[in-house]
Batch of 2 targets.
Target 1
Amino acid sequence: MKKTNIILLLIMIAVLTGCMQWQNRQNIPENQNTQTETYITGTEGATIRFLPNLPPEQLYDTEPFTAMIEITNEGASQIGGPGDRVYLSGFDPSIITGIPTTGIQIPKLEGRSVYAKEPETNTITFKGRIKNLRNTRIDKYPLTLLATACYSYETTANAGVCIDPNPHSPTTKQKVCTPEDIPLGTQGAPIAVEGIDVVPSKGTTRFRIHISNVGQGDVFRNGIEFLQKCSPYSTGLDFEDIDYVQIGDIIVGGTNIRQTCKPLDKKGNIKLTDGRATVICELKNIRGQTPYTTPITITLKYGYRTSIFQDLEIIPAN
């Protein structure tokens, strides 16, 4: 009997433990679920790399020149639109000919999403010809190839914020939420909204939005004309083009507060200093007395440039 009682006791403990675990899982708030989606994290947009041996480290001048570059969209925004191109430079065009100075169009690559969690990849191929070096009286021609990707990108950051129409009201205990600063991670893009400071006052809530270049490349003004200046064969991006991010829609509870944001230029751009900037926006004329939570969505638009290098040596054939 004692053995039977012990077995029954163990069965009851196992059943109770299972029920408690199930109940705990049912009570986990949605925003604390450990199985959170991670497809919108990361600090990169497009990444590029030379495929192995394309080109090899050493070439004879009698061989064809082929450089194949793999491009991957690591982030959450689509690439491959007008002006999105990869360029190959760093060589003497009188020695390696046939490489287009206009670059090659980046193929359309979708960003990661709940439906496509793996990054899309494609390749771009540059084919050229090598000049006969036997009459140049040089024993080798060393060079460093530069591959440059220029593309438009977007960052979208989402969070929940507390709006308190009357933060100094004495009925503090009856409030469902309290405005507080919101730290954010990354949004699957090289430009990130790192955090939002929420500053409430009666009838108005101000948002200090902190923006940072967290990628490995250069950010520049949004627009096709700036993508063209990104080319290593153009006049180049100047000081008034680099480190600017365009503030797109900033929507709080269905209201676009983009027009209240400062300090922006006439085209809605903010200048990054040492890779960082802060924009201040306001939600005005908040009615009522009861605090509430609502979503905020921030959209940033910009051009981005990333580059890689590869050493190469061309040898005259005997």
Target 2
Amino acid sequence: MLDIEAMVSARRVTCLKKFLEHYPSTWKSILNSIILPVGGSLVLHCNFDTVKLKTRLPKYYKECFDAWSGLNSSTPVTFNDITNEIIWKNKFICMNKKSVHRKDLVNLGIVKVGDIITDNNLFLHEDPYVPISPEQRFFVMGVVHSATEQ
């Protein structure tokens, strides 16, 4: 017997898989402009929840993102899982009940939880030798704090 809901979900996931493919299209440009404030296509590699994204998705795309999230969602358990978890748009790392994204920190190579732990085994905001601005340091401190509240 056909499972209609599974077929619909598969079509929604396929829509986002096509979005990640490298060819130009008007619909992809529109979707990209909608999700650009939350990290663009990077969000599809994150452990996100659409409710916690700081953007309003059109109904169809929200359903696509919900289906994608349902398939890619995970709860990190081991130390290795946690350090490899992407910080940005993560449903477990929230401020004011919304997931966070900082393009300037992504550009500095701070993407995964492991990236905020220095070679001296300090959190990034605790190590005075890490070349980030005081505002970025304060933000990272908020990320660490929000992750420990979960």
